[in-house]
From TrEMBL:
Record family assignment: Belongs to the class-III pyridoxal-phosphate-dependent aminotransferase family.
PROSITE patterns: AA_TRANSFER_CLASS_3
Keywords attached to this entry: Aminotransferase, Pyridoxal phosphate, Transferase
GO biological processes: biotin biosynthetic process
KW Transferase (keyword) present: yes
InterPro entries the record matches: Aminotrans_3, Aminotrans_3_PPA_site, PyrdxlP-dep_Trfase, PyrdxlP-dep_Trfase_major, PyrdxlP-dep_Trfase_small
Name recorded for this polypeptide: Aminotransferase class-III family protein
GO molecular function: adenosylmethionine-8-amino-7-oxononanoate transaminase activity; pyridoxal phosphate binding
Pfam name, any one: Aminotran_3
Amino acid sequence: MPFTANRDFKHNPRLFVKAEGVYYTTADGQEILDGTSGLWCSNAGHCRISIVDAIKKQSAILDFAPSFQIGSPLSFEFAERLIHMKEGFSHVFFTNSGSESVDTALKIALAYQYSRGSGTRTKFIARERSYHGVNFGGISIGGIAANRKQFNNLLNGVYHICDTHNIKHNAYSKGEPEWGIHLADDLERLVVLHDPSTIAAVIVEPLAGSTGVLIPPKGYLSRLREICDVHDILLIFDEVITGFGRLGTAFASDYFAVRPDIFTTAKGITNGTVPMGAVFCRNGIYEAFMDAPESAIELFHGYTCSGHPLACAAGLATIELYQNEGLFTRSAELAHYFQEAVHSLKGSRYVVDIRNLGMVAGIELESVHNKPTVRALEAFKQCYNKGLLVRATGDTIALSPPLIIEKNQIDFIVDVISMVLRNIS
Ligand SMILES: Cc1ncc(COP(=O)(O)O)c(C=O)c1O
């Protein structure tokens, strides 16, 4: 079981057998309201018929096509569709997950520096308390000790700036916190320490979800961009959870009006239906690889299932659904109601902070002495038993409901959490 206490799970398994709209159904027939879009995936809700039909249809037309030296029109069509969603970005590279997108982005950054004659730029700067998936690149740049300590062999030349989370200054901020733009200057410190000519890229999640919903302070991301520009360093945004409407815009970079050079996506790209990811590259990156002789492979990278026909069909249907139903706008319109609803939990037992942006919220609980994570995990289990799926990250309850959620369903989320906070020890 991925990221699960296996023995604990086996004592009391939680199994979903069906899903529709914003509800899962468990093996014993209980309905569970999905407060997390599965795992930040099902932005349009579950089992949406147009996506189901597109996958069914495609599986009978072209079930698989090799992706090395051969293509299928659908992958080019989907790539075109995606780059139309993001001005200034000319190409995407298809992967099968967020972790693969992250490692692909790191490799593209290194290869780009090499191709443009800056082969000394091999280091990465990432951030503490970041999550970038579980492949070796991702855990090396990630800022979670537990995700590394069993594995030892990590990428060399990775450094971390400080994280932006600070309850003392920013507790109960609604939206982007006022305090903390200066934390971006930690990047300048590391760049000077290691010399800009050795640094390939800086990678951050514009909004960190998996490490407890950390919202960037006002102006922080712009400041990172400025520092990268001064030193000619690539800026990579990991948008695996923020892509496709979570903040009320197509991508978080649109919300913050900060343009990265490369950004990763996955999850919501197919509404979670078929595993897929895409790495977006700004204009000029692809071209830097095109100096090699025409018969030579320009990028020694790719996956058997890059641009898989079923994933592309699902992705095309997903983007159409997002647009037809105006789900990114809906997300923006619901964000205020969602914000006020979750902040109404202020004052509940154990709550030390509530933070939110777009359709994401984190409710941080005071940890049990010497037993971090135990309290939020207990809250997760009790919410589940009361018909609500939340995510426990550390001692924070994270919420990221499907963008089709209704206001009364948001009220249900808050009511259940409120009840659970009265119950847990
Ligand atoms: C920011 C970020 N990057 C990467 C990943 C990894 O994605 P996956 O689990 O699809 O490999 C995640 C997963 O939650 C994520 O939140």
